[in-house]
Amino acid sequence: MSSELEQVQAGIASLEAQRPILGDATVELALAPLRQREKELAASPPRKRLVSVLFLDIVGSTAMSAELEPEDVHEVMDSALRRFSAVIMALAGSVLQYAGDSVLAAFGVDVTREDDAERAVRAGLDLLTEAQSHAEQVARTHHRHDLGFQVRVGIHTGHVLLGGGVDAESSIRGFTVNIAARMEQTATPGSLRISHDTWRHVRGIFEVEAQPPLRVKGHSEPLRTYFVLKAKPRSFRVPTRGIDGLETPLIGRSHELDMLLSILEDSRQKGQLAAVTVLGEAGLGKSRLLHELQSRLDRTAQSTWLFLGRAQPSSIGQPYGLLRDLLAWRLQIPDSEPGETARQRLVDGLAPLFTEKGLLQAELLGQLVGMDFSESPRLAPFLKDPRLLRDRAFLAFRNYVGALAASDGSPVVMLLDDLQWTDDASLDWLRDLLQSTDSSLALVMAGRPEFQDRDASFRDVLAKHPILNLSALAGPERAALTQAMLGRLGAIPSGLQDLIERQA
Fold first, then answer.
1. pLDDT-derived band of residue 235, with 50, 70 and 90 as boundaries?
2. Top-ranked range on mean pLDDT: pick from 16-30, 296-310, 442-456
3. Is residue 234's pLDDT more than 70?
C-alpha cells in the first residue's frame, strides 16, 4: 500500500494532466490543499533534542492598554519584543514563537552546546535587565511612571521534539515545554524561575534561592525550583558532574600531580617560565587534576600569585575571551558588572603595579579584551594601528606578570582549563606568553587533544615544553574510585561490593 505522501503526489499529477480540460483556474484551486498537504508530509521528521526552553511573558500589558493610545501600546510592545529577541539571539538562542505579549525560545535547537543551559539562564537574567531598561525608557517617553511594565521568565531543561507538522521550522513539542511554561507562570514579576533539571546543569555558576515544591499538572511529584538572583563571581571549578554535595578523593593521578608540583617548584627556584600541557579526552579528570593542584597551592606555606582561566564553548568566537576571563577572575570583575565600573576595577587593579605609564598599560589591556577605553586620549595613537595595540597590550600583560613576581618574590601560577575552546586571538596571546616571558611564571594548560592541533606553529611552541597525556584509569583505580564515591553515600550492598571487586 502506497504512503499518504505518494497518494497526494499522484493526485497532484492527475490534476496537472487535466489542465487542458479544466483550465488553470480550476486546477490551481483544486491543487492548493493538496500542495499544502504535500509540504506537511514532505517536511523533515521531528527530531528529539535536549534543549533549555525559555518562556517570557510581559506583565502589565492589559493595564498599559487602558493608559496609553493603541498605537503607543503597539510600539511599546513591538520594541520590547525586538529588544528581548536580540538578547536571546546574542547568546545563540532561537526565538521560536511570539504569542501576544509572550516569547518562546530555546537553547540547543540548531547546535547542541555544553553550556546551553548556562546561556539560557544568562539570557533570562539579561532579559530582566533589558525589561527594566525598557520600562524606564517608556516612562520617560510617555511621562508616566505607573505603567507597571515588567516581565517574568521561566526555564526548564529537557528533551523535546523539534520540527514536523504544519509549522515545522518553529515547532517544539513535549512535556518539557509545559514545565518551562509553568516556571514562567509561577515566577513573580521581575524574576526568573528555573527547574531543578536546569539547576543541575548550572549549579555553582549562579546565586539561587530554593523555592517550595511546585505542583505541575501531569507530573506526579512536586518539582524543585529556584529563583535565580544573579551570576556568581567567576569560579574556576564548577562541580557540574557527579552527585550533589559529594566530593571524591583524587585516585590514580598521584604521579601526574607530583609532576605538576615539580614543574611549579622548578619555576619558583629558577625564577623563570615553566610550562606544561595536560591533554585528555572529556571525563578523564583534567579539571579535577587542576583543582587538586590549586588545593595544594592553597595549603602550602609558600605564597603565590594565582591566575585562573577557563575557555567556554560560547567564547570560541570572542577575541581574547580567555585573556578577559583570566583578568576578570584575578581582579574579581563579574560578568554583570556595568561597563564603567568594570573599567575602573581593571585600572585600579593594574595601573599601580607598573613603574611608569600605568594608566596607559591598563587601558591597552582593557581595550584589547573588549572593555572599550576608546575615549582615552592616551590610546589615540594605538587605535589607528590594531597590530601595534595588540603588541603593546601583550607586552603590558608580560610586564604585569613580572611586576607581581617582583613585588614580593612570590611566583606567578596560571592554571588554564578547557583550552580546546580557546579563541584564535587568545591562542596568539598564549603563544606570545610562552615565547617571550622571562618572569617567574608557572603555566599549566589543560584541554582535549585537539587543543594542540589548532595550528602547526602553536603545536611547535607547545612541543618545547612537557606534555602530559592522561589515559583512562586502570581497572583497580576505577574500582577504588567507585568504592570511594559509594562509601560517601553510606554502606555498600554486598552484591555491589562483589561487582566492584570483579571490576578490579
1. low
2. 442-456
3. no
Report how far residue 19's alpha carbon sits from residue 318's, in angstroms, rounded to the nearest whole number.
58
Question: Among 37, 62, 350, which Cα is nearest to 166's?
Answer: 37
**3-class state of residue 126 by DSSP:** helix
Name the pairing type of β-strands 274-279 and 206-210. Answer: unpaired
**Mean pLDDT in residue range 415-430:** 91
Cα of first residue to Cα of last residue in the chain, in angstroms, is 56
| Signed CA dihedral, 356, 362, 368, 369: sign only | positive
- Residues 349 and 339: beta-carbon distance below 8 Å: no
Of the candidates 302, 201, 287, the residue with the CA atom closest to the CA atom of residue 250: 287
The residues near 377 (Cβ < 8 Å, ≥ 6 apart) are none
More confident call, 140 vs 341: 341
Residues 38 and 9: beta-carbon distance below 8 Å: yes
The H or E element that residue 435 is part of is helix 424-436
Q: Are strands 467-469 and 94-99 parallel, antiparallel or unpaired?
A: unpaired
Phi-psi region of 362 (alpha: psi -120 to 50; beta: other; left: phi over 0): alpha
* pLDDT tens per residue, range 386-398: 999 999 999 999 9
Strands, DSSP E only, in 343-478? 412-417, 441-447, 467-469
Interior/surface letters 13-43, b for 16+ CB within 10 angstroms, e for the rest: eebeeeeeeeeeeebeeebeebeebbebeeb
Residue 122: helix, strand or coil by DSSP?
Answer: helix
Burial class (CB in 10 A: 0-12, 13-18, 19+), 137: middle
State the Cα angle at 143 between 141 and 149, rounded to 5°.
Answer: 75
Cell numbers representing residue 245 in the block: 554535595
What does each C-alpha distance from 20 to 16, 54, 119, 220 come to in angstroms? 9, 53, 58, 62
Question: Distance between CA atoms of 328 and 348, rounded to whole angstroms?
Answer: 13
Residue 480 has pLDDT above 60, yes or no: no
Residue 227 neighbours by CB under 8 Å, 6+ apart: 187, 188, 191, 192, 193, 208, 209, 211
- Cα 204 to its chain centre, rounded Å, is 13
231 — phi, psi (to 5°)?
-75, 140
Q: Helix, strand, or coil here: 463?
A: coil
The DSSP code sequence of 265-289 is: HHHHHHTS-EEEEEE--TTSSHHHH
Alpha-carbon Rg for the chain, nearest whole angstrom, is 28
Residue 445 grid coordinates: 594548560
Nearby residues of 277 by Cβ (< 8 Å), 6 or more positions away: 445, 446, 447, 451, 452, 462, 465, 466, 467, 468
